[in-house]
Here is the input.
Amino acid sequence: MDVSFLGGPQPQHGVGVVAPFDFALDRELWRWVPDDVSLRLTRTPFVPVGVSLDLARLVSEHETLREAVRALGATEPEVVAYACTSGSFVGGIAGERAMCEVMNTAGEVPSLTTSGALLQALAELGAARIALLTPYTESVTRSLEEYLGEAGVTVTGRAFLGLTRHIWKVPYRAVVDMAREAVVGAADALFISCTNLPTYDAIPQLEAELRMPVLSANQVTMWAALRTIGARAVGPYQALLMEPEALAGTLPEVPPETRTEEQEGWT
Here is the structure.
């Protein structure tokens, strides 16, 4: 059969993603990506260490980042994102900036990290006081709070799961329950940390219930990467992704007809 009439495929904008070796949510990242953008993922080398400050340092070593970005260069991405929250906040503000510089030099394209993207998103929303939810241990959670403090962001309440592995297996119900626990003070937004924690479908539900913007690690990473190349992330009923005029007044309710059966069971 002659298929010459198809005329495709259409050109794709490339977004390079460097993820830790244990990252298991490729499909979640793709849900924020419009049709004319393609993700090109690579992973850091395996190390036999559980999720901890030690692991965060290992997966964000400069030589590891340099080699990963060079590998991605063969696919000609227009931007490179380091998709790991703990790996990009463990060195503080200076450490995050140094990581971006290493990636910029290695790939010769704009580069960003999840923790840097978080600060961009908070600035975009005018959020200086946040509730914090993490799957981490107390020590890793505390390191994130220190990073946020350096940036002038106050954590008003927190909840953490204390996990050192299998974070991608945490169900949405647990994320929603922990979010409710974290929001105990006056906050401008809620941040759900860790790129290996599923959040896409939980964000609209939580925004409708908590009446505040809800950010997640994968969401801010994709939002910032796509914005860098002039594209918009796809995410219905997610405040960060809405046009400014849509944010005026109160956050919209999630229409019942758009909720999944699982979301109906959270309330």
Remarks:
- Strands lie at 13-19, 37-43, 79-82, 111-113, 129-134, 154-160, 189-192, 214-216.
